[in-house]
Amino acid sequence: MSVVCPECDNPLDIDADDVDEGEVIQCDECGSDLEVVSSDPLELAPVDAEGYDDEDDAVVVDDEDDE
Ligand SMILES: [Zn+2]
Q1: Half-sphere exposure of residue 57, counting CA atoms within 13 Å on the CB side?
Q2: How many angstroms does the Cα of residue 44 sit away from the middle of ligand 1?
Q3: Does position 51 have pLDDT exceeding 60, yes or no?
Q4: Cα 40 to middle of ligand 1, angstroms
Q5: pLDDT (0 to 100) of residue 29
Q6: How far apart are CA 55 and CA 21, in angstroms?
Q7: What domains appear along the chain, each with residue ranges and CATH number?
Q8: Quick one: pLDDT band at residue 65, thresholds 50, 70, 90?
Q9: What's the CA gap between 34 and 12, in Å, rounded?
């Protein structure tokens, strides 16, 4: 069973028996996170990267001078 990446149309060699619904895999070609929305037939959907803020998340350390 072959399925293509919804983001870049790269054919992905995934065995439906190896993945579960809700599992997130990554496309080798474009690096997109793809969620297995259905295992029969195998269907993938791009995971919305929202709320996945990994960039330059400045942590403001307020050195409070109390007491
Ligand atoms: Zn891809």
Answers
A1: 5
A2: 11
A3: no
A4: 20
A5: 94
A6: 29
A7: 2-46 (2.20.28.160)
A8: confident
A9: 11
> How far does the centroid of ligand 1 lie from the alpha carbon of residue 57, in Å?
26
CA of 20 to the centre of ligand 1 (A): 19
CA pseudo-torsion sign 54, 36, 9, 4: positive
Tokens 């028996």, located at residue: 17
Percentage of the residues of the chain whose pLDDT score is greater than 70: 81
Ligand 1 centroid to residue 67 C-alpha, Å = 55
Q: How many CA atoms lie within 13 A of 8 on its CB side?
A: 12
pLDDT tens-digit series, residues 14-32? 888 999 999 999 999 999 9
